[in-house]
Amino acid sequence: MKKIYIVFTIFFTLLVSVVTKAQDPLSLYYLENVPQTVSINPAMVPRANAFFGIPGINSIYTSVNTDMLGSDMIQEYNGGYVTLTQKGFDYQPFLDHIGAAANLNSYQTIAPIVMGFSGKKGYFTFSWTEKLNESVALPQDLFKIIDKGFPNKSEFDFSPMAMNGQYYRELSFGYSYKFMSKLRVGIHAKILQGLVAIKTDIDKFDLNTNVDEWTLDLDGKIYMSAPVDVDIDENGIPSASMPDTDMETIIDKGLLNFSNPGIAVDFGAVYEHNEAWTFSGSINDLGFINWNGDLNTFTADGKFVFDGLNIDASNMDSIDNVVDAVLDSLKQAVKLRHSSEGFSTGLGPKLYLGALYNVNHYLSLGALSRTVFAKNDFKQEFNVSANVNLYHVLTTSINYTLAINGANTFGLGLALRGGPLQVYVAMDYIPHSAYKNVVISTTDDGGEPTKVPYVPTRFDNFNMMFGVNLLFGANGYRDEPMVDSYNEF
Amino acid sequence: MKNIRIRTIILLIGSLIVLSGCMKDEIELKDPQKYNRPVKVAGPVFNAHFVAQDLLDKLGDNEYISVDKDGLIWAKADTSYSTVYDKIVKYDSLEYNKKYDLSTLIKKSTNKAFSYRDTITASVIPDQRFDSLTMQIAKMEITIKSPTAVTGNYKVTFPEITDGSGTILSFDGILGGSDTQSKPLNDGMLRFFQDPATNKSAFEMITEGVATINGIPATTELEISIKIIDFLPEEVWGYFGRQNTFQERDTMDFNFLSEYSDMIQFKHVNMTLQIKSFFGSPVSFKIDSVMFTNTTTGDFVHMPDTAIHLRSIDYYNPTKPSVDSLVLDIADEVNIAPDRVYYSVGGWVNYYGEHPGQQDFFINDGKVDLDSKITIEVPFWFKTKSYRRTDTIDFNIKEMLDSNIINYMNLYFDFTNGFPFDIYSQAYMVDSLGNKVDSLFNDGVKQVWDSPIIDATGRAGEPVLTEVDIILDHDKLVKLYEQNVTQLFIVSRVKTGGFAGSQETPEFVKLFDDYIIDISLSLDAGAKVDNLN
Fold first, then answer.
1. CA A2 to CA A8: how far, in whole Å?
2. Which residue in A90, A304, B260, B454 has the most C-beta neighbors within 10 A?
3. Å from A413 to nearest chain B CA?
4. Among A258-262, B50-54, B514-518, where is mean pLDDT lowest?
5. Residues of chain B neighbouring A85 (CB-CB closer than 8 A)
6. Of A308, A363, A365, Cβ closest to residue B521
7. Domain segments of chain B: what residues?
8. From the candidates B1, B8, B16, B30, which should be mutated to test the interface with A, based on the most A CB atoms within 10 A?
9. Considering only CB atoms, which chain A residues are within 8 Å of B17?
10. Do the domain assignments include residue A10?
11. A248 Cβ partners below 8 Å, 6+ apart?
């Protein structure tokens, strides 16, 4: 009993406030007989002699991660309720919560091929995965505009603005090897094939508003590797548009696009200290992609002073022309230019550290830490779980995650097996606090109010993976006895 | 013990979930789609820059506006008339046919001589006289038809026509059948004589020969046809007569001036008659029955008839036209701000008839036009104390502000006036029925945009900046909103002279094209949350 208290004390002590980025579901980590755990820790091996993911539906993953909805979006005010656009809404909790920028990230993966098998000394795995990541950062000062407008003598810093995204193909070759009697190590060697990417690098994006003039000071770059048509006007100002696409282009720029190579590795280890305690760790996605094809770099570095729309006899009859002239002046002033610069993107390395306490042969308690490293930053999550492993049929994990400056809510993992067929689902950050029966009324049209039965009070993250696998020899694996044969301790 | 431990763990996890999650009571969100936060906006709105000519172009049709070399702006309207020499010098038909009955002359004789003389008229216009004609290109074609029963020969002679070598033009041939001949007349000449019978210019054709009629033919007619073909004259000499080459009753609209009605007095109003001639005759351009009218007021003024008379061009310098113009300053006479002119205009050749020894000529060198033009010009050199202009601008405050009213709005105008007149203005906010609700500037106080200092020549100096702050507070905005202001009625009045306290300020000022007006607007506004609906 005392041990359990110590375990929880350790983890609760580590729990501070929140924010995480969506990655592979933490709920997946201790679903021991789901082969996709290998993608988190390459030292792990599924409890099957071999597995084969049903093509296309073996690991469908989607994730949304934002801190924009992490504070109360509906607030009480004067006995009623208000939201962002309304008088009385207090922006400070929202601004405190998002920090310098509000982030909205989404991740989608789909794996055409996932397979693995036990070799003589180790376990081999291979996967082909299509990965799409997008992230948008909206600077805090953007929301100050909604809050306060553009008052006289105001300064706005939009430099945290960012828009990054990449779509790449990952071919992963994995090998897990029992290095010593208690230690298993694993590695994934990944060949990456970049397809499309966008990356922003904004050093300065200041706006000062005064009654006499507005000043915009901009210094930043947008890197793109994408088939974009760029026109350069007589002043050297570029404009971009999407080209017409046909099947040939899709094949050339998709399947057969090898101009953006990358590599990455994952390392993992599992240490079975004794029958009760198992410790594990991995560091994943140490790698990068070099983007060299279809390069389009847009650079802006300059200051634009707006002292009003300039109207004269030539344009006074067309406000469109007046506005266009301002935009042209803006482009000139900030020296908007086009070039083709290669760039590289990282994958965002992740460090997993876990401890598992086997209460008995079907129940275990897990603790897991995940650290996601980003440029000059990191995100930290902690997860505790209770895992029930009825290996022949059912594996489940009920867990709770606390993310620093992020969500604190529970997750669920579930895998069911019938014969060789296995169906699983794992999800984190299930919204658990909500307004019920939200009535949205409008005074203008006099129509019937809209009733929404369930509106989460907050929403930071949500991720989910599900899939269908075929497991072969799923009653154990060659070099270790099946769990069913464990003696209860 | 183990069961207790498991139960404890499950209890802890359950408590954690329950404590961290809850369902709140039913709530109501009213109008979440409406944005009603009390935001503020401060910033520049526009900088309008206009030069004088821009504004005048907007006031009237810019075809009336011109700028002289000094930059002075003029309003100008003109109309042109022209004629070509073909309408002055007209030849009769260049073909001639004649039949002679040989039987009456010859009867049954053999080798009997015959002779005929014919006068061929060349001029058409009654008092037009041709003395000579040189031909750059021409060809005389002659056809003689006689019955086959007639034998003999003929000779046709044109004593007044010589070919390029100076030889008198004649044709010889055999009678009996049809005989066609032609001879070139390039560089040839035709010397006319004045036919006393018709008093027209003419030349003679002499037909003579010897003929024998064999048997009894069905016809004994001798038929002669002549025609001058490929005719391109080089010079014509003579007297071309007193001709009215054109005569039109016309009007000239001058809408631009009507904009100013009778509120502006111009220093000058010029009416210019111009004529340019390549004619080898005296020409005249005559304007009469001139009446200036103001179609708004119905006022009209008659002007005396006027004409310009030009001498012929110099024969030895034919590429230099004969030109003349007449400028009439009619500012004093035409002080009714006319917007339409009625007049009758005519072009004349030899208006005063023939002088002794006069020789008109026409040289076919491509410049054979007579151009004339009437121009009315008004330099913007004017004075006014009462020029008044009104403009209406849509200003539907309810549409602009929707249901959220602005709490306050401070408008900051910078008005830089480079024009040589003070501008007094007021903007009235009116409802849809035209009822005044309020005024932009303080009631009863017209905003004055001061003029620059004017120098002795009437030119304005450095533009003058006037700053005006307009404070629209909440009460005023509510009033405009509640009383459904839909339009801004802007009244402006312009006053020249007498400003800046300068004794040297001229009575009249000039409007140069480089005068400017700059208007800058910036605002500081705050939204009020209260919904006035």
1. 10
2. B454
3. 15
4. B50-54
5. 32-37
6. A308
7. 40-61+384-531, 73-87+241-379, 95-239
8. B30
9. 400, 410, 432
10. no
11. none
Residue A478 DSSP label: T
> B278 with B310: CB under 8 angstroms?
no
> Which token pair is B431?
């409802």
Burial of A42 (0-12, 13-18, 19+ CB in 10 A): buried
Q: Which is nearest to B117 in space by CA: B103, B134, B98? A: B98
Matching residue, tokens 């009045």:
B493
Phi then psi for B402, rounded to 5 degrees? 50, -135
Q: How far is A452 from chain B (nearest CA, A)?
A: 10
Which of A51-65, A304-318, A475-489, B357-371 has maximum average pLDDT?
A: A51-65
* Measured distance CA(A357)–CA(A367) in Å, rounded: 9
Question: How are beta strands B270-277 and B322-329 bridged, if at all?
Answer: antiparallel
d(CA B391, CA B393): 7
**Range of A434's domain?**
44-350+419-484
Which chain B residues contact residue A410 at CB under 8 A? 16-17, 20
Residue B88 has what DSSP assignment? T
Instruction: Give the Cα separation of B478 and B155 in Å (integer).
Output: 111
Contact flag B527-A149 (C-beta cutoff 8 Å)? yes
B526 phi-psi bin (left φ>0, alpha ψ -120 to 50, beta other): beta
**Residue A489 covered by a domain:** no
Give the length of chain A.
Answer: 489
CATH 2.60.120 fits B73-87+241-379, yes or no: yes
Q: Do B40-61+384-531 and B73-87+241-379 show the same overall fold? A: yes
pLDDT, tens digit (0-9, with 9 covering 90-100), for A92-102: 888 888 888 88
Please check whether residue A386 lies inside any domain of the structure.
no
Per CB-CB distance under 8 Å, the chain A contacts of B522 are 211-212, 308
Range B492-507 average pLDDT: 60
Side chain identity at residue A20, one-letter code: T
Residue A38, φ and ψ in degrees, nearest 5:
-60, -30
The amino acid sitting at B49 is H
Neighbouring-strand partners of residue B156: B171, B207
Q: Which of 2.30.30, 3.10.290, 3.30.1340, 2.60.120 would CATH assign to domain B40-61+384-531?
A: 2.60.120
Nearest to A367 by CA among A413, A400, A389: A400
Could you tell me if residue A366 is inside a domain? no
Longest C-alpha distance within chain B, in Å? 174
Mean pLDDT of A209-223: 94
pLDDT at A13: 29
Q: Which of A89, A211, A386 sits opposite B524 (nearest CB)?
A: A211
Secondary structure (DSSP) of A359-375: SSSSEEEEEEEEEEEET
Query: CA of A409 to nearest chain B CA: how many angstroms apart?
Result: 7
* Inter-residue contact B517 to B419 (CB < 8 Å): yes
Q: Say how many domains are in chain A.
A: 1
Q: Where are the alpha helices (H) located in B248-407, listed in sequence order?
A: 255-258, 397-401
